[in-house]
TrEMBL record:
Pfam families: AAA (PF00004), AAA_2 (PF07724), AAA_lid_9 (PF17871), Clp_N (PF02861). GO terms for cellular component: cytoplasm. Belongs to the ClpA/ClpB family. This is AAA+ ATPase domain-containing protein.
Length: 687
């Protein structure tokens, strides 16, 4: 329909078999009905005027001329509605006193339009504003803390206090949490919200906590925790609240230029105008502000917040990763100087064990299981050892959560849910369950994780001899080197072992690699084989780590780095090393000394769980002779690489006194190492 319609309707009819066009003008009553229907359509955010809008407009029309528009039902509205419904819906039961035709129509129209509130319909107000409020696009973390819906924060006392000190500053009082994904940046913001909520909770203790018959609090431990948090709250922040702003909610639904800016300005205005309860905005992934909502010739969200931040009327807690901070925020000097960076480092294994010990009870209650102390320690240690592409404590907590789900699914339970299992009969989550989950995530066999590595490593030489015949000296050297490195007498950031196998074709170099991969990692498939004859040219070396940005194949990654990144627990075989270009040795030197390699995308690939093996078809003397004939630079690098090998075909045994001195130095260097693997027997045997 035409919302402004005033010209009238054009009717065509037959009279005495002659067609004539007659222009019928709108009556005042019809104009009122159409105008009312247009307002109702606007209230429902409907572009066209539909039949339900016309129906409701007719219900509110008073033929007696009383101005009752928008005030609810008119004098004879229900009578007109009953008559209309009797014809339209063919309902005969219209004379009942309990039946309200007007309410029936309103409910029908609201259901068709999806409206939940009928007040807007009755009054006829034009739909209200489309600008969302802070309550609609934000989450009040302080309110969640008062209701006990936030998890407690452990092991981040220093970071929380640093943020509180920044918040009470006179200028530049906007902390920005910087850290890798999963280290606990959002948890720190939730911890601040709990501290700000603690004084409010103390003011209404009797409403929140129950008391027993003697007048004591039932949950005395929780009361003491709230009191401890209240002591940390600065007096200046006792009336503040923390609201998590969801930037996606602001951007969603914006179609026209200026809508996003209007929404964000409305939020900022709402925050700055509220003097009774000052609000601190928590913006997770704050780097998304830079460029958010900007169109061609427009301004982004960061520029909209700068004036309020500069005047000190708006306080913000941001959270982002180090790389995103440098990529987006550091480039905007005006925004950077208004934020105070606070580093959030990854916790150590010992700190992670303490964190898991505190959160295990909550996860156990959720899954109806019990976590043993061994399971908590295994989750921290195994996640640190085998899951290299994520960070503590996130990956360790995920291990606990997944293991609890596994035990819950496998334990017998009542289908009806009528029988409640007492807590003392909950099934246990043990190291075995944690090991199973790790094996599913990393493809490392469960048996290898469960068995004592001491027995497995002591039997390594016997297992290798069963398949590799006639190479007793090489097998003994490889076994000793692996045992020595796994016993802790090595830098834990370096590869498990580095070998150089020299000899003619067919003597068993590759077979020894396959056997070692099967016995150490569990399968022959856990081996990455690269033919170094494909890397004879200087420019081909970049294929190992991937081309730099701007070159073809940049997104695909490197042949070596991508393979190890996907399977970090594998044996890396570099076949025919002498055929590769000299620059390859520079890469190998970094792997053997640091245990890491950076690919073309800037990602760091860890080799600390890999065994590095290089083979050559010529003798070691020939390799050294060729190296001298090459460029001087390659000769220098080759000498360094040669000294990093665990086993080298050209190296002669050192005198016994020198060997004992080296062992003594290694023991002194490893006094501070964690001998959690209990491989002292293997270390003794390796001597």
């Amino acid at each position: 329909g035409n919302k402004g319609g005033g010209r009238g309707l054009s009717w065509q009819f037959n009279q005495n078999r002659r067609a004539r066009d007659v222009e019928l003008p709108f009556t005042p009553g019809l104009k009122k009905v159409l105008s009312r229907a247009a307002k109702l359509a606007d209230a429902f955010d409907s572009e066209p005027i539909r039949s339900e809008h016309l129906m409701l407009a007719l219900l509110e029309y008073d033929p007696l001329g009383n101005e009752g528009e928008g005030t609810g039902a008119t004098v004879d509205e229900d009578g007109y509605a009953k008559g209309a419904l009797a014809v339209i819906l063919r309902m005969d039961d219209m004379d009942s006193d309990t039946f309200s035709a007007s309410e029936f129509c309103r409910t029908l129209v609201m259901d068709m339009s999806g409206k939940k509130d009928s007040a807007e319909l009755v009054t006829g107000t034009p739909g209200g504003s489309d600008i969302p409020t802070l309550k609609e696009c934000g989450t009040d973390l302080t309110e969640l803390a008062e209701n006990g819906e936030l998890d407690e924060v452990y092991g981040r006392d220093d970071e929380v206090k640093a943020c509180l000190r920044t918040l009470v500053r006179r200028r530049k009082n906007n902390p920005c949490l910087m850290g890798e994904p999963g280290v606990g940046k959002t948890a720190i913001a939730e911890g601040i919200a709990q501290i700000l909520a603690a004084p409010k909770m103390l003011a209404k203790m009797d409403e929140i906590f129950d008391r027993d018959d003697d007048g004591n609090f039932v949950n005395q431990a929780e009361v003491e925790r709230v009191k401890a948090l209240a002591k940390l709250c600065p007096p200046r922040l006792r009336s503040h609240r923390v609201v998590s702003l969801e930037l996606a909610s602001l951007v969603a639904g914006t179609k026209y230029r200026g809508e996003f800016e209007e929404r964000l300005q409305s939020i900022v205005q709402e925050v700055t105008d509220d003097k009774s309860q000052p609000t601190i905005l928590f913006i997770d992934e704050i780097h998304t502000l830079v460029g958010a909502g900007s169109a061609e010739g427009g301004i982004d969200a960061a520029n909209l917040l700068k004036p309020a931040l500069a005047r000190g009327k708006l306080q913000v807690i941001g959270a982002t990763t180090i790389s995103e901070y440098r990529k987006h925020i550091e480039k905007d000097a005006a925004l950077e100087r208004r934020l105070q960076p606070t580093m959030v480092k990854e916790p150590t294994v010992e700190q992670t064990i303490d964190i898991l010990g505190n959160v295990a009870a909550k996860y156990g209650k959720f899954h109806n299981v019990k976590y043993t102390r061994g399971a908590v320690e295994a989750a921290a240690k195994l996640s640190e050892r085998y899951i290299n592409d994520r960070f503590l404590p996130d990956k360790a907590i995920d291990l606990l959560d997944e293991a609890g789900a596994v035990v819950q699914m496998e334990s017998p339970f009542d289908v009806t849910g009528a029988v409640k299992v007492p807590e003392e009969r909950y099934p246990e989550v043990t190291e075995h369950t944690i090991a199973r989950v790790v094996s599913e995530w990393t493809n490392v066999p469960v048996g290898k994780l469960e068995s004592k590595e001491t027995d497995r490593l002591l039997a390594l030489e016997t297992e290798l001899t069963l398949r590799v015949k006639g190479q007793g000296r090489a097998v003994r050297s490889v076994s000793r080197a692996v045992r020595r490195s796994r016993s802790g007498l090595r830098d834990q950031t370096r590869p498990v072992a580095s070998f150089l196998f020299c000899g003619p074709t067919g003597v068993g170099k590759t077979e020894l690699c396959k056997t070692l991969a099967e016995n150490y990692y569990g399968s022959e498939k856990d081996m990455v084989r690269i033919d170094m004859s494909e890397y004879m040219e200087k420019h081909s070396v970049s294929r190992l780590t991937g081309p730099p940005p701007g070159y073809i194949g940049y997104e695909e990654g490197g042949q070596l780095t991508e393979a190890v990144r996907r399977a970090p627990h594998s044996l890396v075989l570099l076949d025919e090393l002498e055929k590769a270009h000299g620059d390859v040795l520079n890469i190998l030197l970094q792997i053997m000394e640091d245990g890491t390699l950076t690919d073309g995308k800037g990602r760091t690939v860890c080799f600390k769980n890999a065994i590095l093996v290089m083979t050559s078809n010529v003798g070691s003397r020939r390799i050294l002779q060729v190296a001298k004939e090459r460029a001087a630079s390659r000769g220098g690098v080759a000498e360094k690489v040669n000294g990093s090998f665990e086993v080298n075909g050209s190296s002669d045994p050192a005198p016994e006194p020198e060997r004992r001195k080296k062992k003594k130095v290694r023991r002194e260097e490893s006094d501070d190492e964690d001998f959690s693997d209990e491989l002292h027997a293997a270390a003794t045997y390796a001597e």
